[in-house]
Specification:
Helix 2 crosses helix 4 and helix 6 runs antiparallel to helix 7. The chain has 10 helices and 18 strands. By secondary structure, the chain is α+β, with helices and mostly antiparallel strands. Helices cover 33% and strands 23% of the residues.
Length: 403
């Protein structure tokens, strides 16, 4: 374990717990569900004001166009909020990427809207752990880093997107652009466990919609003339589940469609998710899916249209990424924090960053738990813990720690 140097001790002396808590609470009090464009705009403006304290340029980037399949099987554009980028010293040779998201899973009409103190150290509230506290940590850690002379030799981009909770489809190209050429990246999802455990290797994720078009007919007089789209969709769901194996969890999630009880339904849309644990599993599934859908078309005499794909590639941990994990662990030990890691079936923007061969640790945010539920909570003292951790990790990278 490398002990803290006097410069590192001085670096974290000004980290302000109350400032981070105030920011977290202020941002979490505004509903910013991914589809709440008004709430996202309000939070984006608050974040832009806060991050303007750093010595760089803050911009709000328009989302890329994203098409989704509606219940009638039509492709429609889904609106998204703007994404924030803060770019500091873009001319520097060594640059880092720090990412977070401003959206939550709670829509504007969800009953979970308020903050509640569960005890002196635990705050319950929407988006507290996932991940408005993480945004406060990014700002505080970088504010501390900027007090060091070492900061002048490096640069960084901060990217806070508005659609992470739905797969980052409108920000994927932006993440890809910002990740290219970066020396390392940190993402501020909450810790994998309340004790501060980090997520290590991650599987990937893909979302698909399959539209089935059959032929309607009277269910009593001439059912033989119909081609039942609901039956074809149900058959597809069963076949998908049968394709599942240890390296490829598959979840048929929803079937839209149907008609009156006396009508053979001529339309259905099946939506499903896959979680490939390895690139090979994803590639084989893509091949097998096409063959399976072709069989369904022949057997049920329906037409089929496939929409979607892999939005988060699997994230293995290579040698350089492991060195970054080791650096975080060693730095944590110097601060009296015991940090471990475990593989995760969850996905995040760290998957997209790692696809650019950039070492990334993607659970540098606050300690907390029960995210995506009304029981979501953050452990307030971990604001300071994680801000200190990030500031020193970045300082060590800036002053010669190699990956």
């Amino acid at each position: 374990m490398k002990q803290l140097t006097p410069a590192e001790t001085e670096l974290i002396a000004g980290i302000d717990q109350q400032r981070m808590l105030d920011n977290t609470m202020r941002w979490a009090e505004v509903n910013s569900g991914t589809s709440n464009l008004e709430g996202l705009a309000k939070v984006a403006a608050m974040l832009a004001d806060a991050f303007s304290s750093l010595p760089g340029e803050v911009t709000l980037r328009n989302p890329a166009s994203v098409g989704v399949i509606d219940g009638d099987g039509r492709e429609v554009e889904k609106p998204h909020g703007q994404h924030l980028v803060c770019s500091v010293r873009p001319e520097a040779e060594k640059r880092f990427l720090l990412t977070g998201h401003m959206d939550t899973v709670f829509p504007s009409d969800h009953p979970f809207q308020t903050l509640t103190w569960l005890d002196d150290d635990i705050l319950n509230g929407p988006g507290t752990a996932d991940m408005k506290a993480g945004l406060a940590i990014i700002l505080e850690a970088l504010t501390a880093l900027e007090t060091s002379e070492a900061a002048q030799s490096i640069g960084y981009d901060v990217m806070i997107n508005a659609d992470e909770e739905t797969g980052s489809l409108s920000s994927a190209a932006l993440i890809d652009q910002l990740a290219r050429g970066k020396y390392a990246a940190l993402t501020y999802e909450p810790s994998a466990l309340p004790d501060g455990t980090l997520a290590h290797a991650r599987g990937g994720s893909g979302n698909f919609s399959v539209t089935f078009t059959g032929r309607s007919a009277h269910a009593g007089r001439n059912p033989e003339d119909g081609r039942n789209a609901i039956v074809a969709a149900a058959d597809c769901a069963l076949r998908l589940k049968a394709m599942q194996h240890a390296d490829l969890p598959i979840n048929p999630a929803k079937i839209d469609g149907g008609a009156a009880n006396n009508v053979v339904p001529d339309h259905a849309v099946l939506r499903f998710n896959i979680r490939p644990k390895a690139t090979e599993a994803a590639e084989k599934f893509t091949h097998d899916l096409k063959a399976m859908l072709a069989d369904l078309e022949r057997e049920h005499e329906v037409s089929i249209h496939l929409h979607g794909g892999i939005s988060r590639p699997p994230k293995p941990v290579d040698k350089r990424a492991q060195k970054l994990f080791d650096l975080v662990k060693d730095t944590g030990a110097a601060l009296g924090q015991k940090i471990g890691w475990q593989s995760s079936g969850g996905v995040c923007d760290g998957n997209n960053i790692a696809a650019n061969h950039v070492p990334v640790v993607d659970t540098m945010g606050v300690r907390g738990g029960k995210i995506h539920s009304p029981d979501e909570f953050m452990i307030v003292p971990s604001l300071t813990e994680r801000a200190q951790l990030s500031a020193i990790v970045l300082h060590r990278l800036a002053t010669g720690a190699s990956l």
